[in-house]
Design goal:
Oligomer: single chain
Number of domains: 2
Number of helices: 6
Length: 149
């Protein structure tokens, strides 16, 4: 008898995550040749069902298969901080190569960070509500954390 198994887009996403371990939603959509909005809706459901995990590296969402507590929150925060610090260092080096004064560099960095935060705020608030967190308080802590780095 022929194999009558049907593979859905969600099946393909899960198979991709078994191969890649961790991937951005946009990259997954590109590999699966599926619109990002469709992948995002799958991810929303799978995160809510705790099949997938979601973490941010400097405001860019990455997904992974949930396993038995992969990392502690502290480790994730440390890794995110390292990513942000590395990105900030690269940003400042590029600004320095363009001979910008230090006070101008800092202003440009803060402007860049604030624009990135503004672009992610609505999604962040929705996700905080889903997790039964106080969205405004959680956002404030997240914003303070990023701005302190």
């Amino acid at each position: 008898m022929a194999d009558d198994t049907i593979e859905t887009g969600v099946d393909s996403l899960l198979a991709l995550l078994r191969e890649k371990d961790r991937i951005s939603i946009d990259e997954a959509a590109k590999i699966l040749k599926t619109p990002s909005k469709a992948v995002q809706s799958w991810v929303d459901f799978l995160v809510e069902e705790r099949i997938l995990g979601l973490e941010y590296k400097f405001t860019k969402p990455y997904i992974y298969l949930n396993k038995a507590k992969q990392k502690t929150t502290t480790t994730k925060q440390t890794n995110n901080a390292k990513d942000i610090i590395a990105f900030k260092k690269e940003f400042m080096e590029r600004a320095e190569n363009k001979s910008l004064p230090p006070e101008k560099m800092k202003g440009l960095w803060n402007e860049h960070l604030n624009k990135a935060l503004a672009a992610k705020k609505q999604y962040f608030m929705i996700e905080a509500k889903k997790r039964e967190l106080d969205p405004a308080r959680t956002w404030q802590k997240y914003e303070e954390y990023l701005l302190s780095i």
